[in-house]
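In the design runs reported in the main text, the only information available to the sequence generator was the tokenized backbone. The following block is the verbatim input for one such run; it is reproduced so that readers can re-run the procedure and compare outputs position by position.
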């Protein structure tokens, strides 16, 4: 029996995922070599170099992964809340960490070793969510149950924000993709997308005037979107075509009349008319909600009021709540500031590095932008620019294809789980990888804000590599157990 168990584990584990894991780490190590190599260096394997140290992190990660596979997968189910509690205490204690590294208190320094607890909080939160949501009688469509799941996500987020690591905290929002898979109303996900749209459109076009009138394009478009979104929600959730046509008709007709009056008669701010229309819309929804007693009307009313309040508070949050460096990064991303010598420098240099690689790249260790250290953080947050410069478009596309195959494979494994615990945890893992790849690569290309999160298996460092390894191999252990029970 002693020898049979490991044999059954090795025969049932998903070797395709492990192969993708090893391939990504290998390509990641080559990229770190290219990013940290200086002309004249001869030893890529010395522990005095980044490439040499990364070999150590890779070796320990592989050992850690196989140790997890040897463990009984029921351990993670049984002790999920305990693991989560321990990581919460560690995250909270890190807030008071005296070591300040680049303005952040997110690192624990133990002699020569530096660990970032936020990287390990992801698998702990995923385990806690899987345990909570797989309990008998749990229903995410009940507000009480949904609030409990949200609390599991928000508590570690608050601790990480307290460490001044906003980027790492935002990763935890990716668990809402899993919520959607498990039955969270799509309206909640739509609300989040709408808020982002309001923020981007409102801030980016606030200073642009409509037809040279006193009307801000940003405010005009956002308030019009609120009215159209409300009409769409009435059609989708109340299924009342008459009320939908009424909202759209009054919105478009009154807006058109206001614009014509503004342009050809007396210039004035059309957004005041739209605000009046929004107020009338609130009363319209409230009236029909009280008359029909349908809760959908009150939900749509909450969305409409929240949209207007959120939009008018966005400017205040940007200018008075966010840190100066965060505000500058958002302005650069939205094209409001260029600042190529300041906040936009990293992205500008990474774009030059990627563009200089062309189709086939400059070859291993031949990147000039990276060798001359033009790109800050080029072996951590901006590691993908090294891939683009040395391996070109073909190499970059190959790396993204590997990540795509890994994420699709994780989704396939998650869907075949017979128990909710394994399925929920699997979707958490896939969501985390998707968020990291999308944001990190988008950040390097100037498509998403610079929030400083690593590219899985590529960015230099032990904390992120260990964190992603634990996150992945716990799921592989759960899946292997499923195969063993099936056999």
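Verbatim output:
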């Amino acid at each position: 029996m002693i020898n049979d168990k490991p044999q059954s584990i090795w025969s049932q584990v998903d070797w395709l995922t492990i192969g993708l894991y090893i391939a990504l780490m290998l390509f990641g190590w080559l990229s770190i070599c290219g990013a940290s190599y200086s002309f004249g260096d001869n030893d890529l394997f010395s522990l005095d170099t980044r490439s040499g140290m990364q070999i150590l992190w890779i070796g320990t990660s592989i050992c850690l992964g196989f140790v997890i596979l040897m463990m009984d997968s029921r351990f993670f189910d049984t002790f999920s809340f305990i693991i989560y509690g321990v990581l919460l205490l560690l995250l909270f204690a890190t807030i008071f960490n005296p070591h300040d590294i680049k303005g952040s208190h997110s690192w624990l320094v133990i002699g020569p070793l530096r660990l970032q607890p936020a990287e390990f909080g992801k698998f702990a939160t995923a385990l806690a969510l899987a345990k909570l949501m797989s309990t008998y009688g749990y229903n995410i469509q009940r507000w009480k149950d949904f609030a409990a799941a949200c609390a599991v996500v928000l508590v570690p987020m608050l601790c990480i924000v307290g460490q001044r690591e906003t980027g790492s905290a935002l990763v935890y929002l990716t668990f809402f993709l899993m919520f959607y898979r498990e039955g969270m109303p799509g309206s909640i996900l739509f609300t989040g997308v709408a808020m982002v749209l309001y923020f981007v459109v409102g801030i980016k076009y606030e200073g642009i005037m409509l037809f040279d009138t006193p009307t801000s394009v940003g405010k005009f478009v956002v308030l019009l979107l609120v009215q159209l979104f409300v009409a769409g929600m009435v059609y989708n959730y109340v299924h009342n075509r008459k009320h939908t046509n009424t909202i759209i008709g009054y919105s478009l007709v009154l807006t058109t009349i206001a614009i014509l009056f503004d342009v050809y008669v007396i210039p004035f701010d059309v957004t005041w008319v739209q605000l009046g229309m929004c107020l009338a819309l609130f009363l319209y929804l409230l009236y029909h909600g009280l008359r029909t007693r349908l809760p959908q009307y009150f939900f749509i009313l909450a969305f409409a009021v929240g949209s207007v309040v959120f939009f008018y508070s966005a400017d205040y949050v940007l200018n008075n709540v966010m840190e100066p460096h965060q505000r500058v990064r958002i302005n650069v991303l939205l094209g409001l500031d260029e600042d190529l010598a300041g906040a936009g420098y990293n992205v500008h240099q990474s774009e030059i590095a990627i563009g200089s690689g062309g189709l086939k790249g400059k070859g291993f260790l031949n990147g000039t932008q990276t060798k001359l250290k033009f790109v800050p953080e080029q072996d951590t947050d901006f590691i993908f620019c090294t891939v683009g410069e040395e391996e070109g478009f073909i190499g970059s596309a190959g790396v993204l294809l590997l990540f795509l195959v890994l994420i699709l494979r994780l989704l396939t494994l998650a869907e075949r789980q017979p128990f909710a615990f394994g399925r929920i945890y699997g979707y958490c893992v896939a969501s985390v990888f998707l968020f990291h790849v999308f944001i990190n690569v988008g950040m390097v290309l100037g498509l998403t804000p610079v929030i400083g999160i690593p590219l899985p298996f590529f960015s230099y460092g032990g904390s992120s590599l260990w964190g992603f390894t634990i996150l992945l191999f716990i799921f592989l252990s759960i899946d292997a157990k499923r195969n063993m029970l099936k056999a």
